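Appendix C: a fully annotated inverse folding record. The material below is reproduced so that readers can follow the format used throughout the book. The structure is listed first as tokens, followed by the designed sequence.
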């Protein structure tokens, strides 16, 4: 609105000052001509300044502040990076979880980077984040959760740490958190893990405390340290353990399937907001997850990214800005029988469906983490 105001003011000034200059010139009053011109120049310069401040084509707009946000303790900016990948900017850190740029199904072509890779299009560009304190988390070493490219970021990023959910070696900036229930503290972060195996690979789910926030990323955690069908479930005990480590889970990332262990996780941790994941390239299926959770009796606000680069702002315990809502108090798309967001509703951010009902998820045979052509 400010730029519109100054443009209109300039147009009006041109008309008014033009007549005034004409009259002064006819009267031979050169001093007045110079004074009017100086006044007009001042307005014109302010208009140019406002144009420079206004977002240009392709720039992100929304909440006030620089690109990485003027976040305070307990606040975050969240970017969806594809599949199970998310970036979370807290007050002092950039946390990156399970970043992968590989085909999500065996027959898929390799994803090609855009001309200008950036968080805004779902890619990590080391030059963009080189001056931030970056912590990269990898839950396990399956190809849809671990991409070796993350190790190259250390060449550019001044302060970067890597946290692996298994024994991935040692180093000055490497933290290997192998089972059972390993933990770490560094640079103001507190990290707790719970563990499982799938397809013979050890893995961890991360509970991270940073800058007044508690964030949980599930990876492919299923709570079983052996065969999924025969090993006993440790989920209830693991969740009880985690509950001794926090007061509130702010943000939770969970694979978008409704199975017993997911319900146990959500009912135990009771996050303020939930982001479903594990459908890279098929994000349209995420919307039905909220409806299926509701049918299962779990009522938590669910925010469904539509594409890599989607950005969400977390303030005061809720999402206040999402890709489809530009207000500072978002009321995301929800099924019409539900109460208002913030009262335990399950919500989606999309408005692409023809009705206000979330479409049910298709029936699936769930062997955890085995979607997309059995990619390992």
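Designed amino acids, in order:
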């Amino acid at each position: 609105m400010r730029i519109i105001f100054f443009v209109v003011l300039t147009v009006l000034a041109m008309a008014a000052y033009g007549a005034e200059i004409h009259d002064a010139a006819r009267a031979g009053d050169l001093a007045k001509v110079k004074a009017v011109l100086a006044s007009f120049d001042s307005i014109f310069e302010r208009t140019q300044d406002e144009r420079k401040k206004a977002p240009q084509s392709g720039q992100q707009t929304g909440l006030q502040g620089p690109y990485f946000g003027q976040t305070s303790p307990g606040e975050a900016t969240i970017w969806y990076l594809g599949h199970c990948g998310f970036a979370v900017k807290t007050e002092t850190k950039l946390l990156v979880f399970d970043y992968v740029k590989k085909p999500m199904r065996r027959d898929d072509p390799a994803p090609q980077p855009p001309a200008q890779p950036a968080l805004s299009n779902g890619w990590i560009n080391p030059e963009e984040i080189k001056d931030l304190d970056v912590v990269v988390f990898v839950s396990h070493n399956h190809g849809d959760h671990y991409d070796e490219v993350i190790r190259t970021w250390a060449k550019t990023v001044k302060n970067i740490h890597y946290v692996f959910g298994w024994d991935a070696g040692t180093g000055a900036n490497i933290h290997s958190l192998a089972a059972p229930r390993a933990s770490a503290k560094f640079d103001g972060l507190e990290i707790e893990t719970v563990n499982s195996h799938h397809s013979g690979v050890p893995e961890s789910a991360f509970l991270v405390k940073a800058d007044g926030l508690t964030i949980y990323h599930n990876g492919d955690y299923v709570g079983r340290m052996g065969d999924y069908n025969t090993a006993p479930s440790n989920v209830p005990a693991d969740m009880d353990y985690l509950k001794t480590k926090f007061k509130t889970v702010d943000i939770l990332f969970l694979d978008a399937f409704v199975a017993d262990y997911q319900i146990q996780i959500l009912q135990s941790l009771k996050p303020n907001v939930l982001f479903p994941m594990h459908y890279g390239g098929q994000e349209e299926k995420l919307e039905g997850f909220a409806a299926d959770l509701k049918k299962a009796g779990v009522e938590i606000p669910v925010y469904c990214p539509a594409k890599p680069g989607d950005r969400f702002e977390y303030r005061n315990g809720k999402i206040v800005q999402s890709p489809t809502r530009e207000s500072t108090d978002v009321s995301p798309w929800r099924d019409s029988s539900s109460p208002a967001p913030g009262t335990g509703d399950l919500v989606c951010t999309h408005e692409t469906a023809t009705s206000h009902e979330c479409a049910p998820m298709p029936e699936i045979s769930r062997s955890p983490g085995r979607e997309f052509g059995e990619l390992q």
